Amino acid sequence: MKNKKTIIAIRDFIISAEKSIKNAKKLLKDVLEENNLDISTEVELDTS
After folding, report:
1. Backbone phi, then psi, for 46, in 5-degree steps?
2. Is this model's pTM higher than 0.70 or not?
């Protein structure tokens, strides 16, 4: 039974990660559009 709980937890983690990636892609798309940038355009990101 412990293995089943572990498998379910891993599956849930993957589902959550996939949703996060989908949301991040949407946010990136929106920001790129707002700044008239194309994903193929080289962009320097300031993370400070």
Report:
1. -90, 115
2. no
